[in-house]
Amino acid sequence: MALALVPLPVRAVVDETTAPALTAITGAQRRLDATTSSRELARGVAAHVEMANRLFVRVQEPALSAALAAAVSEAAGFAAWLHGDMHDVGTARIYYRLAIDRARRAGQGLLAGYMLGSLAAFEIEGADPGLALPLVAQAREQVGVAAHSTPRAWLDAIEALSLAACRNDGRAADSALLRAEKTIEKGDPSVPPPWPWVYPFDHVKLAGYRALVSVRLGRASDALAAFAESLPAAHLAPKQRAMIMLEVATAARQDGESSRDGYRVDEAFQLAREGLAVGLTYSSERVVERARRFRHGYAGPVTSCVREFDGKLRSAVA
């Protein structure tokens, strides 16, 4: 008789509070990314994505379904970022595809465009940057005629980087950067960007992309000048800063090699070693892989700075 009074467990109710709760969890996990290794975060984030997706599949009411789809997209996008940082390319792509699909199911064009643009940026860093151009084109279709300058300028900058990385097309890349600059100038800086963008894409961020484009095109002095413009005003998490340090190191190495300035080359390797150290501290395979590419791009004499860097790089796989 006593057991008959114990209430049976019931399936969790999905209501208008569910999607905001899921989004809040994703936000809390994102904040941990600045101080926690991706490998430590990934398992919990993957479980969160799986749970959120199960809730989405179960719900029938259209309004709740759309809100849950958007929450799944945001969580899956973060999971993709973490697996990209772990250099788990296949899993990262799976999560990006899920994020894009759920954003479309949510009817959120800006969110779908953001996820497509993020996947394009991911592919540029990988082995096949040519995949980025069609992804940028799809992202533009999703974004449409956005009222705010940030989505359009951001996609122009990603296109420029893709053109530099996969085609070595400096003229087309410069044209895309110029479009982005004009779009920013026409925008109203007092108007905040639309979700899911948190910060506006402004001249400082554009300078960062201009620097990356210059590195890909081998314009070392242009890259260093653009980095000098963008870095002091940039608020970057440690892993992001490490990636930028390696890009700056690449530009400095290119500059030293072209001018036969051995001191400049040593300076580049010292900076790269510092960036690699951050990557090792945070167990970022993405940073370590970028450091490997930095080293593979150098065929000059092996100085003491180069040997120190090589020792640090070996410790990443020891």
Topology of helices and strands:
Blueprint: H1 18-33, H2 38-58, H3 62-85, H4 89-105, H5 109-125, H6 132-143, H7 149-167, H8 170-186, H9 203-217, H10 220-230, H11 238-259, H12 262-281, H13 285-296, H14 304-315
Helix pairs in contact: 1-2, 1-3, 2-3, 3-4, 3-5, 4-5, 5-6, 5-7, 6-7, 7-8, 7-9, 8-9, 9-10, 9-11, 10-11, 11-12, 11-13, 12-13, 12-14
Our count of domains comes out at 3
Strand % is under 5%
Overall 3D shape:
globular
Structural category is mainly alpha
Describe the structure.
The protein has 14 helices and no strands. The longest helix has 24 residues, at 62-85. It has 3 domains: 18-107, no CATH class; 108-232, Serine Threonine Protein Phosphatase 5, Tetratricopeptide repeat (Alpha Horseshoe); 236-318. The protein is mostly helical and 318 residues long. It has helices spanning 18-33, 38-58, 62-85, 89-105, 109-125, 132-143, 149-167, 170-186, 203-217, 220-230, 238-259, 262-281, 285-296, 304-315. The mean pLDDT is 92.
Brief summary of the model shown:
The chain folds into 3 domains: 18-107, no CATH class; 108-232, Alpha Horseshoe (Serine Threonine Protein Phosphatase 5, Tetratricopeptide repeat); 236-318. The radius of gyration is 22 Å and the shape is globular.
